[in-house]
Write a structure and sequence with these properties.
This protein is an alpha+beta fold. The chain has one domain (5-222): Class II aldolase/adducin N-terminal domain (L-fuculose-1-phosphate Aldolase), CATH 3.40.225.10. The chain contains seven helices and seven strands; from the N terminus they run αββββαβαααββαα. The protein has a seven-stranded antiparallel beta sheet with strand order 4-3-2-1-5-7-6, with helices on both faces. A hairpin with a 3-residue loop joins strand 6 (164-167) and strand 7. It is globular, with a radius of gyration of 17 Å. The relative contact order is 0.16. The mean pLDDT is 95.
């Protein structure tokens, strides 16, 4: 077994989950799996359809951006993933989807307020939207600049408490403690985005959930004394 096989298998499974959950159409979207001990991550190849994917087709990239295993070109979003792995301690997976309701918020350049407990179960507060990327960042290195924009947007925020973001005019990125975790947060983001649109359609003046209720729902699922779900073995 090769030293990168585990992250290639994890990345492939995560990308197939993107397709299964219908978070992206055609060849859009990508997911990656990172192993800090190896200093490398496996990511979907650029432009391949989901039906063409296999663990062997995944491309492995180190934290200097060099392809260290794989014959195909890595995703065009590889440098964005790279910047996130370099800056967000504890994340082991990243997912960039093109799910329509989340993209709609990104195109509107609006953060998603925490309107209810479904949202609060996923994140500790609003889902932020970045500013529009600058012309200088696009000219310098668009994909790396996108990652830097996300990192700057998270100054003062905890990435593992709010494991998702909207890039203005572009779309959503999510991350987690594994590649599959990241994909499932991307799915949660899409559903929360859809619910928020429906809420504002019913009541354009809807206000965020009170902080004490939001925090309770987040903590009971993710806090030190969490009691949601079943205990581990």
């Amino acid at each position: 077994m090769g030293k990168y096989d585990a992250i290639k298998e994890e990345a492939c499974a995560a990308n197939l989950e993107v397709d299964r959950l219908k978070l992206a159409n055609l060849t859009w979207g990508n997911a990656s799996a990172f192993d800090p001990a190896l200093g490398a991550f496996a990511i979907k190849p650029s432009g391949l359809g989901y039906g063409e994917l296999s663990p062997e087709s995944m491309v492995v990239v180190d934290l200097e951006g060099r392809v260290v295993e794989g014959d195909l070109r890595p995703s065009s979003d590889t440098k964005t993933h790279l910047v996130l792995y370099r800056n967000f301690e504890g994340i082991r997976g990243v997912c960039h989807s093109h799910s329509p309701h989340a993209v709609a918020w990104a195109q509107a350049k609006r953060s998603i307020p925490c309107l209810g407990t479904t949202h609060a179960d996923q994140t500790a507060g609003e889902i932020p939207c970045t500013p529009v990327i600058s012309p200088e960042a696009v000219a310098r290195d668009y994909e790396a600049g996108t990652g830097e924009l996300i990192v700057e947007t998270f100054r003062g925020r905890k990435p593992l408490e709010i494991p998702m973001v909207l890039v203005a005019g572009h779309g959503p990125f999510a991350w987690g403690r594994s590649a599959m975790d990241a994909v499932h947060y991307a799915a949660a983001l899409e559903e929360v985005a859809r619910m928020a649109i429906l809420t504002y359609a019913i009541d354009p003046g809807a206000v965020p959930l009170p902080a004490h209720v939001m925090r309770k729902h987040y903590e009971r699922k993710h806090g030190k004394s969490a009691y949601y779900g079943q205990p581990g073995p």
